[in-house]
Amino acid sequence: MRSKLVRFQLVVFTVVSVLAVSNAAVAYLGIKRVTGIGMYTVDAEFERAGGLYVNSLVTYRGVDVGVVKAIDVGPDRAVAELQIDSDFAIPRNSRAFVRSVSAIGEQYLDIVPDSSEGPFLADGDLIAEVDTDVPVPASEVVDKVNLLLAELPKDELRVTVDEAYTALNGTGPALSQLIDSSRQLIAPRTGRDRPYPHAAGRRRTRAGCGDRLACRHRKLHTRPRFVLRPIGDE
User: Fold this and answer.
1) pLDDT band at 13 (very low <50, low <70, confident <90, very high)
2) Pairing state of beta strands 107-112 and 57-60?
3) Among 139, 52, 128, 40, which residue's Cα sits nearest to residue 92?
C-alpha cells in the first residue's frame, strides 16, 4: 500500500515539475517567439531605421507585445518586420513610433492606436510610412547646438557672466534666507480648519461679551483715564 502511494506521489511530482519547467521555458526563454507559434507578422515602413535593430522590443499601450524580427533597408526607406503576439488585437489605424528608453538608451517601437475599434492587424499587414515616425538623430541635434553656440557673441557673453558674478558675489546667505522665507509663504496649510492664534484670542474676547453694546461699554470703562491739570499746580 505504501509503495503504491509513494509511486503515485512521484508521478504527480514529475508531472508538476515538467509543467513548471515548460511554462518557464515558454515565458522566459522566448520559445514562443523563436518558434513563431501564436505570433503574426506585420511590416512597418520608416523613413530610416532610426536606431532600431533586430530583437528590438515592440510595445502596445506600454505592454511588451513582440519584437523586431528583421530590418530591410532600401535606398529611400526602411521596412521593419514585426513579430507580434496573437493574444493582442491591434487596430489597423495605429501609428508606430520609434522611441528611446532614455536619452542615451536603446530604441524600441511603440504602437499607438487612434481608437480601440477594429478592423485589427492580421498576418501580412503593413503600417505605411505616413503612419510611422522616427526621432531626430542625436548627431543632428548636437550639430545645431554647436551652430547656435558658435553664433553667440563671446565678448558680450563674457561681460554678462562677469557682471552677474559681481552682482551676486557674497549674496549667498541673503538668497538662502529669502528662499527659506518664501518657502514658508508658498507652503500649503495642512490644518485649514484650525483658527489662527490671534483669531482664537479675539473669539474668546467676543465670547466674554454679552452683546456688542456691552462690550463697547466695558471697553470705555477699562480704558485709562487721563486728568488734565494746570501747569501751575505742579
Assistant:
1) confident
2) parallel
3) 128
Alpha helices, H only, the chain:
2-28, 31-35, 138-151, 154-168, 172-186, 197-207, 212-222
Q: Which residue, 121, 109, 134, is CA-closest to 53?
A: 109
Q: Rounded to 5 degrees, what angle do the CA atoms 63, 66, 69 make?
A: 150
* C-alpha cell, 183: 518657502
pTM (two decimals):
0.53
234 CB burial (10 A radius; 0-12, 13-18, 19+): exposed
Any idea what DSSP says for residue 117?
A: -
Report the length, in residues, of the chain: 234
Residue 223 CB-half CA count within 13 A: 8
Q: Which amino acid is at 175?
A: L
Q: Which grid coordinates are listed for 157?
A: 557673453
Pairing of strands 57-60, 63-73: antiparallel
Q: Which residue, chain included where needed, has cell 536606431? A: 51
